[in-house]
Design a protein that fits this description.
Pfam families: EHN (PF06441). Keywords: Aromatic hydrocarbons catabolism, Hydrolase. GO terms for molecular function: epoxide hydrolase activity. β4, α4 and β5 form a beta-alpha-beta unit. The protein has a single domain, classed as Alpha/Beta hydrolase fold, catalytic domain (Rossmann fold), CATH 3.40.50.1820. The protein has a nine-stranded mixed beta sheet with strand order 1-2-3-5-4-6-7-8-9, with helices on both faces. The radius of gyration is 20 Å and the shape is globular. It contains 15 helices and nine strands. With about 375 residues, it is an alpha/beta fold. The protein starts with a strand and ends with a helix. α5 packs across α6, α8 crosses α12 and α9 packs across α10.
Length: about 375
């Protein structure tokens, strides 16, 4: 059995100095000839973020927070996996593995881990929280060979929970985390009592094209927008991840622009990405791509698995929280084709793709409401 090794993050000062130098000597394109984000990340928005990054942003704050929660490494299937692990003091706490996606990271969960583990209300459900970094993301090792798709990650997460001594546990995820969590549900490993998704995977059938249900019509409209205007990143990363990887690893400006566009389009905001997330939150996430140089390795997960999403049904208990500004809203009828034992569904009034990051209190409430039914 692989050892669990403590991991303390201490980024050398010279790496931060080198980043500042790159920001100081950035070459900027001219402003876009449109007044909105329809051509991509606006120059003015990115310059505002970069100015804050260069002068006011404090990486050591984020670094200290990650170390405070508790960081660990363990080798699974030949790959070092980085994870946050916060054990609850409660004897009745439910072990939970929670998985991020792209362009997110484990920093999405920094504002929910304490309350999940040590509820302020002693009657509220508590969790032992395990938050791994996907292979090739954050401080997990970068795969040197092909084959690390969502099914292999699902098996690795099951091994991780077993290795931590958890014999009864649940799983949660959004974005790639939803794909991994769905794969865990499909595998139904011993000990996994159920799953929760904040981005359920559902696809229309030919008969859905004739539907007059407003939920179906809205889902079809959003699916059309995604295909026509919002999926360029996924096409690039699922076909030629290495090509875009050079820019993402070499240019902090290019990396920030690539990520900020999705923060703008995928959050529940009123016209500015900062309506949903702070600059510090966004930069914490960007730094987890910049410092370990994971722009290319993270993109390769699309090459591995983007065309293979879906597949078998999930027959163990499952729950869904549907946030209003999800990229691809899936009506319940679509989701039930995959999640055959759907025991929890709730439509939320606020929040977008990054549920835990944008709406931590709502997110915590959803996990408690769902997993209370799986005890």
């Amino acid at each position: 059995m692989g050892a669990i090794r403590p991991f303390e993050l201490t980024v050398p000062d010279d790496e931060l100095v080198a980043l500042a130098d790159r920001l100081d000597h950035a070459r900027w394109p001219e402003e876009e000839p449109v007044h909105d984000w329809s051509q991509g990340t606006k120059v003015a928005a990115l310059k505002e973020l970069v100015a804050y990054w260069r002068i006011e942003y404090d990486w050591r704050r984020c670094e200290a927070r990650l170390n405070e929660i508790g960081q660990f490494m363990t080798e699974i299937d030949g790959l070092d996996i980085h994870f946050l692990h916060k054990r609850s003091s409660r004897q009745d706490a439910m072990p939970l593995v929670i998985t991020h996606g792209w362009p997110g990271s484990v920093v999405e969960f920094l504002d929910v881990m304490d309350e999940l583990a040590e509820p302020t209300d002693p009657e509220a459900m508590a969790f032992h929280v395990v938050a791994p970094s996907l292979p090739g993301y954050g401080f997990s090792q970068k795969p040197s060979a092909t084959g690390w798709g969502v099914e292999r990650i699902a098996r690795a997460w099951s091994e991780l929970m077993q290795r931590l001594g958890y014999t009864r546990w649940v799983a949660q995820g959004g974005d790639w985390g939803a794909a991994v969590t769905t794969a865990i549900g499909q595998l139904a490993p011993q000990g996994c009592k159920g799953i929760h998704l904040n981005m359920p995977i559902g696809r229309p059938r030919p008969e859905d094209l004739q539907s007059e249900d407003p939920h179906v019509l809205e889902a079809m409209r959003r699916l059309g927008f995604y295909r026509e205007w919002d999926s360029g990143y996924s096409k690039q990363q699922s076909t030629r991840p290495q090509t875009i990887g050079y820019s993402l690893v070499d240019s902090p400006i290019g990396l920030a622009a690539w990520i900020l566009e999705k923060i703008y389009y995928w959050t529940d905001n009123d016209g500015s990405p900062w309506d949903a997330l702070s600059m510090d939150q966004v930069l914490d996430d960007i730094m987890l791509y910049w410092l370990p140089a994971t722009g290319a390795s993270a993109a390769r997960l699309y090459w591995e698995s983007f065309a293979k999403l879906g597949g078998d049904t999930v027959d163990i208990p499952a729950g869904v929280s549907a946030f209003p500004n999800e990229i691809l809203p899936a009506p319940r009828a679509w989701v039930e084709r995959t999640l055959t034992n759907l025991i929890y569904w709730n439509d939320l009034d606020a929040g977008g793709h990054f549920a835990a990051w944008e709406q931590p209190e709502l997110f915590i409430g959803e996990l408690r409401a769902c997993f209370a039914r799986m005890r």
